[in-house]
Amino acid sequence: MGIGLWGDAVLSVNDNQILTQVGPGTPMGDLMRRYWQPVLLSREVEHTDSDPIRVRVLGEDLIAFRDSSNRVGLISEWCPHRLTSMFLGRNEENGIRCVYHGWKFDVNGSCVDMPNEPETFDFKAKVRMVAYPTVEMGGAVWAYMGPKEYRPPEPRFEFTQQPETHRYASKVIEECNWLQS
Fold first, then answer.
1. Suppose 138 and one of 104, 148, 160, 172 were both cysteines; which one would form an S-S bond, judging by CB atoms 3.0 to 4.6 Å apart?
2. What is the DSSP letter of 151?
3. How many of the other CB atoms lie within 10 Å of CB of 129?
4. CA distances (Å), origin 24, targets 31, 45, 60
5. d(Cα 143, Cα 127) in Å, to the nearest integer?
6. Contact 146/34 with Cβ under 8 angstroms?
7. Do 75 and 63 form a contact (C-beta atoms < 8 A)?
8. Strand partners for 65
9. Is 31 helix (H, G, I), strand (E, B) or coil?
10. How far apart are the first and last CA of the chain?
């Protein structure tokens, strides 16, 4: 650690990367995944079976959608079959269907339909995609992206428990890392 222009401590390049990089497998990314993260506003996925939306959280490209049962799914953007973007998929009947070969995934990342494979092989039971649990509170969709065994209680902050008439949820896009904001 060096000394800055005004006598402040300056992080080395390596220490700065350790502190600010939040992708999967990074020290800070692993830490931040142990908490519920607000990932989008509820109104961004307001209607069941509406178009999916892209979400980038902690260095991961994800897709959010509201299924026919009013559950919000947060899954990998990339289909595990041919890495086609699920953003192009069709949100239908409790799942999102890939446009490439029609594989359909539910909010838990399970493949629930595979029209191009014979049922006798039950191949769909062997295919999963990255999916994160979500909860809706305070006008926001929150996701837990860490290990199941460390999942904390849901984010029941005081503001999340207020009636809609007493709160306003918004978001701001900042082109910086978490520490700079």
1. 160
2. P
3. 22
4. 10, 25, 8
5. 22
6. yes
7. yes
8. 73
9. helix
10. 22
Q: Phi-psi region for residue 57, left (φ > 0), alpha (ψ -120 to 50) or beta? A: beta
Handedness of CA 38, 43, 46, 50 (dihedral sign): negative
Residue with tokens 């006598």, as numbered in its chain: 7
Strand 131-132 versus strand 134-137 pairing type: unpaired
Model's pTM, two decimal places? 0.89
To 5 degrees, how large is the angle CA 63–CA 68–CA 71? 55
pLDDT digits (tens, 9 = 90+) for 102-126: 999 999 999 999 998 888 888 889 9
How far apart CA 126 and CA 107 sit, in angstroms, is 16
Please say whether the dihedral angle defined by the alpha carbons of residues 167, 175, 24 and 32, taken in this order, is positive or negative.
negative
Quote the tokens at residue 57: 């959280």
